[in-house]
Amino acid sequence: MEPPRMSPVVEPLSWMLGTWLSEPPGAGTFPTLQPFRYLEEAHISHVGQPMLNFSFSAFHPDTHKPMHRECGFIRLEPDTNKVAFVSAQNTGIVEVEEGEVNGQELCIASHSIARISFAKEPHVEQITRKFRLNSEGKLEQTVSMATTTQPMTQHLHVTYKKVTP
What we know:
mainly beta; globular
């Protein structure tokens, strides 16, 4: 079976496609947390629809036990650079982020955040993300967040090396 042809609508995001592994481990920090490191696999694909599918799976760098997971879709408004990022996380958060793609950089910010009724406090209130393909061909992701007790602060930074197209 032939792989599906990519929808031309998502062509501006084609630089994100592939399976990516963190190299070196990602770094996390937040005023209410001890700094931590993590391994992460990012899988970004398409099935011919006018959107990309993604999953991010983080693991402890020493024990390889699962940590954070999220999956969802990245959509472009046709004939624009406007992007929507829809994500469901294993922490019980569901979010919609919106922003723009410019060249090989995608900057998005939370439009809406929902959570399960028994989500751990403090609650996340805002999220921003920036994805960019650097000059070495590696994908970088930086995530910042604000909670009910902390202002917008960088939370995660990870650099990925592409392992499959």
